[in-house]
Amino acid sequence: MQVKLVFVFSAIFLLAVIVAAVAKKPVAAGAEKDFRKFLGEYEAKVVPLSKEVALASFQASISGKDEDFNRSSGLQIQLNKITSDPGEFAQLKAFKLGGQIREPLLKRQLDIIYDSYLENQIPIVQMEEMIKLQTQIEQKFNTFRAQVDGKTMTDNDIEEILRTGKDSRQLESAWKASKEIGRVVAPDILQLVKLRNASARQLGFANFQQMQLKLSEQDPQELESLFDELDTLTRAGFINLKKDIDGFLAGKYGLEMEQLKPWHYQNRYFQEAPVIYPVDLDVYYKDKDLVEISRTYYAGIGLKIDDVIAGSDLFEKPGKYQHAFSSDIDRSGDARVLCSVKPDSYWMNTLLHEFGHSVYSKFNDRQLPWTLRDAAHAFTTEAIANLFGRFAGSPAWLRDMVGISVAEAERITVPSRNALRLQQMVFSRWAQVMFRFEKSMYENPDQDLNRRWWELAEKYQLLKMPEGRNEPDWAAKIHIALYPCYYHNYLLGELLASQLLHHITVRVLKTADGESQSFTGRTEVGRYLIDSVFKPGMRWPWNEMIERATGEKLTAKYYARQFVGGR
Ligand SMILES: [Zn+2]
């Protein structure tokens, strides 16, 4: 009985093995087992080194010192060497072509790791040359300080003059001085652009921009259509707003509208809206501790950031990188912010923005494999950052978090709505310039780029090029060199921020009035973001995550409704 039973089981087992073999199941299991082994070895190398790279780069950004930059770029080269290994790439290719990796999380990891190797299948010397150039450019940006009338100025100083100065001659010299960095870095950037294109072509892409988009799961054609659609949506409204801006600025500087130059727009690039409505947000922040406000706010919505603040470097220092960023050091909760806080609305926005990135990193799902423990896409983390950054100009948020009176909040409701709308329109037109310039530059780096830059600024921002100007003003914008083909993600981030705001207001807070929401003290907002946006990480392609989180794929609908009116 006993023996017989064993025999029957053995027979069934044997049959199962034969059936499975015919169905090729053991091959699949075998391939998945092999891939798991590959993953184990990959993570053993990449996980600790990525952390070292992040730490070294954060340190270099603080100090600006040669030795720190050398260490950082050395580690980055080591990391890229791993993903440039042709033998391992061949293995990945075999896994992909074999079609046997079916378990969803394994398959997703395979796709992502494959792309990260593909990008680096270029000769080591070529890669090293690019990283060295990039580091060299980065360092030039870090240490460059504009000279205005014999005085050394930081970016903050320049922006201050452009915002508050009244004398056209002074504005002109500050603006021009800020563009001097363009001349310092342009030859390096051009060399880098050509190297990037050469690598992309070796890998079978038309150029570097096309490669960047495709490798980040964005379709170049679809993206261009979306930018065309946004151009159409915003053009008429922007033409009207631009007249308001010009009328206001001409009055302010005592000029005719036709006499306005790019330095009259209160910002180096006209990427931020000039203050033309009677609301001065800076007064609310001038004696406030912006870091403490951020700490309290995020804790109130269930996203505590005390540990993030403790690890961050938040104030100006000589030699320090002057832009702001958040870094996910280890995908295990260590997220840090670098910035140069001053008590004004710009920096309140920036702090809320950067901590938005940090909470996305911090509240990830540690159960997910390391490779998938990252934002669904660069722009989905921008969306979270923008969602919170926008509150710096919201009367409801100022009332709840900064303590302005209800009457004051009511008084500024209309002008601040106008200001936010203006900000979005101005930014949206500027993002068009960046997206189209980069596309054009990678298509043909030998064209007259100085001219191309101004053609686009004239077309989309309605700015007038200063007469006879022939300078590499495009090169002064740090993103062109160091965060290539990324800028469009900021605008996509705005679209998604509006979509998320709508969803949170209607579905999570169950109210119709989005404008009076500040989320203050509403822990269900943090809960929703953790569960629906942060924890999924890269588990699904970005549009699937958005659809699961909001019930719709990415759409310009809510952005248009919020800022353009109609639809
Ligand atoms: Zn950001």
**DSSP helical segment count:** 24
Helix content: 55-70%
The whole-number mean of residue pLDDT values reads: 92
**Category from helices, strands and their pairing:** mainly alpha
Bound molecules: zinc ion
- What is the element string, with H for helices and E for strands? HHHHHHEEHHHHHHHEEHHHHHHHHHHH
Write down how many β-strands occur, each being a DSSP E stretch of 2 or more residues.
4
| Rg (C-alpha, Å) | 26 Å
Shape: globular
Q: Report the portion of residues in β strands.
A: under 5%
**Major beta sheet summary:** 2 strands, antiparallel
Model regions low in confidence, pLDDT < 50 over at least 5 residues? 1-26
- In whole angstroms, how far apart are the ends? 77 Å
The order of strands across the largest sheet is 1-2
Walkthrough of the structure:
The chain is an all-alpha fold and 567 residues long. The chain is built from 24 helices and 4 strands. It has helices spanning 2-22, 25-63, 66-82, 86-98, 104-118, 124-143, 155-164, 168-202, 208-215, 220-253, 282-285, 290-300, 306-311, 345-362, 378-389, 395-402, 406-411, 413-443, 449-460, 478-482, 488-508, 523-534, 542-550, 557-563; strands spanning 146-148, 151-153, 325-328, 335-338. A two-stranded antiparallel ribbon has the order 1-2. A hairpin with a 2-residue loop joins strand 1 and strand 2. The radius of gyration is 26 Å and the shape is globular. Residues 353, 357, 382, 385 line the site of zinc ion.
